[in-house]
Design brief:
The structure holds two protein chains of two kinds. Helices cover 40% and strands 19% of the residues of chain A. Chain A has two domains: 269 residues, Alpha-Beta Barrel (TIM Barrel); 73 residues, Orthogonal Bundle (Arc Repressor Mutant, subunit A), CATH 1.10.10. The two termini of chain A are 27 Å apart. In chain A, the strands form four sheets. Chain A has a nine-stranded mixed sheet, sandwiched between helices. Chain A has a three-stranded antiparallel sheet with strand order 12-13-14, with no helix packed on it. The longest helix of chain A has 17 residues. Chain A is built from 16 helices and 17 strands. The model of chain A has no long low-confidence stretch (mean pLDDT 94). By secondary structure, chain A is an alpha/beta fold. Chain B is an alpha+beta fold. Helix content of chain B is 25%, strand content 34%. Chain B contains 15 helices and 33 strands. In chain B, the strands form seven sheets. Chain B has an eight-stranded antiparallel sheet. A six-stranded mixed sheet of chain B has the order 2-3-1-4-5-6, with helices on both faces. The longest helix of chain B is centred in the last third of the chain and has 18 residues. The radius of gyration of chain B is 27 Å and the shape is globular. The N and C termini of chain B lie far apart (64 Å). The C terminus of chain B is likely disordered. The chains are: A alpha/beta, B alpha+beta. Chains A and B meet through strand 8, helix 9, helix 10, strand 12 and helix 12 of A and helix 14 of B.
């Protein structure tokens, strides 16, 4: 099945930790941008990737993912136009269609209902924190109560697949506060939870504040403890920790050696190292043997598309070794790990042949475990994932 | 063919940054040896390192022609002196090749220890000194006081000092006039058997070793058989010439002249600085005085990070040695590091230069152990051995006594830092010799100090504690007995021989504590807990623990991140490659030099 990422690079304002390709105060360009997106999608029809041969990848539903930025700044009519343009690439009737939403963009039930009726069937909301002073410090435009209200609205209008994003390791956060947050998340009874350890990206206001000593972030040991606490509490609450930073509520038909049914199908495509198309400013696509990145600036993106060109800024050529490495370090993020059959189908070579001695070494260190079918991280390996991943690059 | 009457051989003595390079450029311009700065690149020694470090270790010699006021054309040979204490023997020999020297002093800084030391060397070699007070155009300049200081310290009347600004071109003509007027011409004997003093050399792949020489007596011609009186080597002069500043072949070099002789020799070790070249068929009876083979003072182990690169390291050292007579090396092995070489250097700068050249020019990833000095050890059975590698120090029960090299240091400093310096020197086992006021604001301090205490970041400490004002010079002053012990470091319970060091018993506990603390900072957290211990014999005197790595995983990774994340992981892997596996612990290169960076952590407490 095929997968499509659509980037919406607009925000009401930049959050202090964010280094994504997104722009504030560019609302006047949204309409032209949507036109350009539709144009680009038409061009993409001539560049479709082959269908995956790996059985795991082939089992995924087709997907469209509106990421940002703040895709919920689009009107329902704009989303509809984009979906119509995407229809010839991705069959809308069977697709998982995800939309990232900011709980502060005053969603309202009407908006959510309209979007739902267009076929958007998965919502991912960036809540980030349930502590209002922290939300202000991060530059978020919503309060915890507003986030909760948006979440309830989405439920009410019929979204049955909702993800909430949270960040831990935030300035000022301690273990007690994080425990309270986790208890509340669990009480909301969310389907899907993503928890990210804060990454201080250079060129963000937060990075500057931390390096200048105005803010202090928890050290690695404390964020490690926060991560372990989340693993423990969410397991107790019945969630499956199916990817390093993602949890999902299991359903009865789920099998331990296959991704859970309510997992994000689109993100699974990334972790299974499938091909995917990308549209929009700064979006990244992957059609082996290439990865490509679009022009980042909204204006140059629009200009390129209007001129009838594909808006590609950079293309990276991949070797089979790159493909193998990426298949490993992306795949090992999943609790099902990397299947030998999946690797062979994707890479065209045998995993044991390529990495046999590495697997032995990592097994001996207790970082991974192998059976006949798959290789996966141990719980220790999950804490030290980079130490494992670095062996494959 | 030159009449010695019209030759002047001189060098420039200057402190780093006092304007040596600018002044020599100006002299070349005014004498039209080079136009403007077009050939500046050629002038400077080709080592990038020197330019990066902001120091010119050595300029190439150069011959200039200068038409004096009397209409006579003079041949002026400028021979540079290296500007660092590591190379003081080379300085000495360069000075011996001259009859005079320009003493260049910054008009706002005054005279510095290294300059003073070199000036004394010049006086010992009977050179005429021409003081030049440079940078008089700068706002902070006080040229009259500096000239007065030169008078009180060296005894050259202040009115003889030339006030100049090389940058602005002020005083250049006066300097040229003074060179002709004040510096005596060479007084060699053209009819005597030929003798030439080697003051520098380099290796050329086509012409072999090129000796830079000052001909003292007689004549050298192309195709002469020559004999090196110190090393005993023999060679044929493949080419003879002068530096203008490019190497320019001539048919002969005669008494009084400066130039080069291409020898075809394969190693500079056969053609050492200070040696005398004579003709094999008509040899001189006596060599020129002052020759001694280059003698390393500081020793360190050099190991390839990747043990498979040992043969490449050997080859690289052999090739460097062709051009560097002062570098010595012999194979050694370490339980922790595998096979490597114990290398001898003139000093820390020399060590740093060699290391960087090996890494840059030969693309080797190297690990270098903390520098050590060479100890004389008297064993109980009466045998005396030399130990340049701390891990080879015999068991204490077998040792009767240990002697270590000591140096006499000279420090010139503004008086306000006397207390600070005294304190530093005392913690480094220094003993006071003398204190002399150069003027009301500056003093010359002399101490006797173990060399081992100098090689461990003494210079950096001196500079940082005096805001860069103090300057240092030192020379070897024999050996003396000391109560020394071997300090061992255990990582994860295993002694790491390459981290052992020799310390004075009184300072052993403190050094041990500082060192394990520093190692705790330098060694990254591993996947398990790693204890770091310091021990004397079987007694543990300090311990720190590196806690296990708890969490190291990319927080998130989606479609747009893959390439960037792969790069991050590759970088992490590269970082690992640059570490040395000792047992199951990955130790970074810096850790082996931890003793040199104790102060960076602020953990070098006052003792």
């Amino acid at each position: 099945m095929r997968h499509l990422y659509i980037h919406i690079p607009f925000c009401h304002r930049r959050c202090s930790y964010c280094d994504f390709n997104t722009y504030a105060n560019m609302e006047h360009r949204i309409e032209a941008y949507v036109d350009a997106l539709c144009h680009e999608l038409a061009m993409l029809r001539d560049h479709l990737p082959p269908l995956p041969v790996s059985p795991e990848a082939a089992a995924l539903r087709p997907t469209i993912f509106f990421g940002g930025g703040t895709p919920s700044m689009l009107s329902a009519a704009q989303i509809e136009r984009i979906l119509q343009a995407a229809d010839t690439i991705i069959p809308l009737n069977t697709a998982e269609i995800s939309l990232e939403a900011n709980p502060g963009t005053v969603l309202g039930r009407d908006y959510l209902r309209d979007v739902r009726s267009l076929g958007v069937n998965r919502l991912s909301m960036g809540v980030q924190s349930l502590h209002d002073p922290t939300l202000r410090m991060l530059g978020r435009i919503h309060t915890a109560a507003e986030a909760r209200a948006s979440f309830e609205d989405a439920r009410t209008v019929g979204f049955d697949s909702i993800n909430l994003d949270f960040i831990f390791g935030l300035p000022g956060q301690d273990l007690a506060q994080w425990r309270a947050t986790l208890n509340e998340i669990i009480a909301w009874d969310v389907d899907h939870i993503a928890l990210y350890s804060l990454i201080l990206e250079e060129n963000t206001p937060l990075y500057a504040q931390v390096t200048a000593g105005r803010l202090r972030v928890p050290d690695d040991d404390l964020t490690g403890a926060m991560y372990e606490l989340a693993i423990e509490m969410l397991a107790k609450a019945g969630y499956r920790h199916y990817e390093i930073s993602n949890w999902v509520r299991p359903v009865g038909t789920d099998r331990p050696d296959a991704p859970p049914a309510l997992a994000c199908q689109h993100n699974l495509a990334y972790w299974l190292n499938s091909d995917y198309l990308a549209a929009g400013a700064g979006a990244h696509g992957h059609v082996f043997p290439q990865r490509y990145a679009n022009l980042r600036s909204i204006d140059s993106y629009i200009a390129a598309v209007q001129a009838g060109r594909r808006p590609i800024a950079e293309t990276i050529q991949l070797t089979t070794d790159d493909l193998a490495a990426e298949t490993m370090f992306m795949g090992l993020r999943l609790d099902i790990g990397v299947g030998f059959a999946h690797f062979a189908a994707r890479v065209g070579r045998s995993l044991c042949e390529m990495y046999g001695s590495t697997l032995d070494q990592l097994s001996a260190q207790g970082l991974i475990e192998c059976d006949e079918q798959r290789v996966r991280l141990t719980s220790r390996g999950r804490m030290l994932g980079n130490q494992v991943f670095a062996h494959f690059v | 063919m030159s009449d010695q009457l019209y030759i002047r051989n001189f060098s420039i003595i200057a402190h780093v940054d006092h304007g040596k390079t600018t002044l020599s450029d100006r002299l070349l311009e005014v004498t039209r040896t080079i136009s403007e700065r077009e050939q500046r690149e050629q002038l400077l020694d080709s080592l990038d390192l020197e330019r990066e470090k902001g120091i010119t270790i050595k300029l190439k010699p150069v011959r200039m022609e200068y038409r004096a006021a009397d209409g006579q054309v003079y041949q002026l040979n400028l021979i540079d002196t290296p500007g660092h204490v590591d190379f003081s023997y080379e300085v000495n020999r360069s000075l011996a090749a001259c009859e005079g020297a320009l003493l260049v002093v910054d008009a706002s800084q005054g005279i510095e220890a290294q300059t003073l030391a070199n000036t004394y060397l010049a006086l010992e070699n009977d050179l005429v000194i021409i003081p030049v007070v440079n940078k008089i155009d700068l706002p902070g300049a006080h040229p009259e006081e500096v000239a007065q200081e030169i008078e009180s310290v060296i005894g050259i009347p202040a009115e003889e000092a030339i006030l100049a600004s090389a940058k602005e071109g002020i005083g250049i003509t006066e300097i040229l006039k003074a060179i002709v007027r004040r510096i005596p011409p060479p007084r060699g004997q053209r009819q005597q058997p030929a003798r030439a003093l080697i003051f520098d050399s380099h290796y050329d792949p086509y012409k072999g070793v090129i000796a830079y020489v000052r001909v003292v007596d007689g004549v050298f011609r192309v195709r002469d058989r020559v004999h090196f009186m110190g090393t005993g080597a023999q060679a044929e002069t493949l080419e003879i010439g002068i530096f203008r500043p490019a190497m320019t072949p001539l048919n002969e070099l005669v008494a009084g002249e400066v130039g080069y002789i291409a020898t075809g020799l394969k190693s500079v070790a056969d053609c050492q600085v200070g040696d005398t070249i004579t003709l094999a068929d008509a040899p001189a009876a006596e060599p020129l005085p002052g020759y001694r083979p280059a003698k390393p003072m500081v020793f360190a182990g050099l190991y390839p990070i990747d043990s498979n690169a040992y043969p490449e390291l050997r080859e690289a050292l052999e090739r460097l040695k062709l051009n560097d007579a002062a570098l010595s090396f012999q194979p050694e092995s370490s339980a922790a590091l595998g096979f490597g070489f114990r290398c001898g250097f003139l000093g820390l700068l020399h060590m740093e230069i060699v290391r960087e050249r090996l890494e840059r020019e030969y693309k080797l990833d190297l690990l270098i152990t903390a520098p050590s000095v060479e100890y004389q050890v008297l064993l109980s059975d009466g045998e005396i051995i030399t130990v340049a590698n701390p891990s080879e120090m015999p068991d204490r029960s077998r040792i009767e006594a240990i002697e270590e090299p000591v140096v006499e240091i000279s420090v010139i400093t503004p008086v306000r830092y006397i207390g600070t310096i005294m304190e530093l020197v005392t913690t480094r086992r220094g003993t006071f010799i003398s204190m002399d006021y150069l003027d009301p604001t500056r003093v010359l301090l002399k101490y006797r100090m173990p060399l081992a205490e100098i090689v461990i970041d003494f210079y950096d400490q001196l500079k940082s504690r005096t805001q860069g004002y103090a300057s240092l010079d030192y020379h070897l002053a024999g050996y003396q007995e000391a109560d020394l012990v071997k300090l061992d470091i255990l990582v994860n319970g295993q002694p790491v021989d390459a981290l052992s060091l020799i310390v004075h018993r009184d300072f052993a506990y403190q050094r041990g504590r500082d060192l394990v603390e520093r190692l705790r900072q330098l060694i990254p957290r591993q996947m398990f807990e790693v204890p770091i211990q310091a021990a004397i014999g079987s007694k543990i005197i300090a311990r720190e623990t590196i806690r296990a790595l708890r969490k190291d995983v990319l927080a998130k990774c989606y479609g747009g991140d893959v390439t960037r994340k792969r790069k991050l992981l590759e970088k992490q892997k590269e970082g690992k490659k640059r570490m040395k596996m000792v047992g199951s612990v990955e130790i970074p290169q810096e850790a082996f030099m931890a003793i040199l960076s104790l102060h960076e952590s602020g953990y070098e407490r006052e003792r």
